[in-house]
Amino acid sequence: MPRPFRFMRRSNAIDLTRMSKAFSRCLTSFVLLCVCGLAGCSLGQTHAAGQPLALPALSYVGSWGRKGTEPGKLDQPTCIATDNIGNAYLADAGSQFVDKFDWKGAPLLSFQDEGMKEPQSIAVDSGGAIYVTDAARAGAVIYFPNGDHYRTLRILKHPAEEDTLSIAVEESGTIHVLEEQMGMISTFGPNLRLVRKWQPASVTPNTRVHPENIATGADGYLYVEDRAGNRFLRFTSDGHFVSEIAARSAGEDRKLSDQFALFKNLIFAMDADGRTLHVWTTDGQPKLDVDLTPELGPANRSVPPLAVSSRNELLVLDIPGTRVLRYSFNF
Which contacts (CB < 8 Å, 24+ apart) does range 274-283 have? Predict the structure, then answer.
């Protein structure tokens, strides 16, 4: 009897040992499966989180500007421009101030010119000099970067209330002033001497150009907006026609206003409805059509002037709201 008893005890011990080892293996396998499963989920989440989110082509950032007639405030702003580091410049017909703001809207410089009556267009050259056209003064006024008056380029012989002047300054210092009513451009050299007066013309037979605004591009060309022809024309600095960019393309009936701005290889232009923004590449490819009504409001209003910052921001001057709207673009 003792031997079988001892045998049975050894057998039970062996079976229990085997069962214990088997249970341990099962438990280990289960834990590994859970860990692997969790790791798989974590890896999947990490991969998904690592995917770059698609940024909107144009997104509203915010606005700045305070109503008032004091320096650094906006009363009746009429035009806007930016310099090569993103500062914004505005001319104000109400307060007769020219104001400089940083990219967030903090005032940097304000100077008043009591002779300024009808500021219509503003530009800044690579050295920081400021140019403002004023039909009441028959030309363009040039200010030093600190706001001191430097010189006036007289364009109009007999100024009238309906006269409209716009200005563009090249990197080289060449200045172009468009006299809209006459359809003429006066080009001045960096020494401020008149080089030529010329009338923009395309190569299309029997097609007259009605220029309404001008801007210089990073490609060195002068861009002329012909709203009547619903197009942009590109010229060399000395007035030779290069190419045409039609606003109506890709089956879309886009209609130009008289407000546009250039940035690198992009053209930003407001539609004639005053609320829709169109963007083209400078080789004529449509890039974007977007409604700015959520920020500008649905009411009928004048078309807002535009400027583009080196910070990849579009600035829209909401004249009735006396504010500047900021949009970030991702092209």
Answer: 274/300, 274/301, 274/302, 274/303, 274/304, 277/58, 277/314, 278/247, 278/254, 279/329, 279/331, 280/232, 280/245, 282/217, 282/219, 282/223, 282/234, 282/245, 283/245
Place of tokens 């082509």: 57
Cα distance between residue 122 and residue 130, in whole Å: 7
Contact 80, 307 (CB under 8 A): yes
- CATH architecture type of domain 59-329: 6 Propeller (2.120)
| Alpha carbon distance 57, 313 (integer Å) | 11
Q: What is residue 32's predicted lDDT score, i.e. its pLDDT?
A: 43
In a 3-state reduction of DSSP, which class is residue 49? helix
On the question of pLDDT at 327 being above 90, the answer is yes
Cβ atoms of residues 133 and 139 within 8 Å: yes
Going through 136-264 in order, the beta strands assigned E by DSSP cover 139-143, 149-154, 165-169, 175-179, 184-188, 194-198, 211-216, 222-226, 231-235, 241-246, 256-263
The pLDDT of 151-159, averaged and rounded, is 92
State pLDDT tens for residues 46-66.
444 555 566 789 999 999 999
Report the DSSP pairing between strands 149-154 and 276-281: unpaired
- Cα separation, 301 vs 310, in Å, equals 28
| Cβ partners under 8 Å of residue 52, min gap 6 | none
The span from the CA of 311 to the CA of 101, in Å, is 14
Cα–Cα distance measured from residue 135 to residue 186, given in angstroms and rounded to the nearest whole number: 14
**Confidence (pTM):** 0.83
pLDDT tens-digit readout, 97-148: 999 999 999 999 999 999 999 999 999 999 999 999 999 999 999 999 999 9
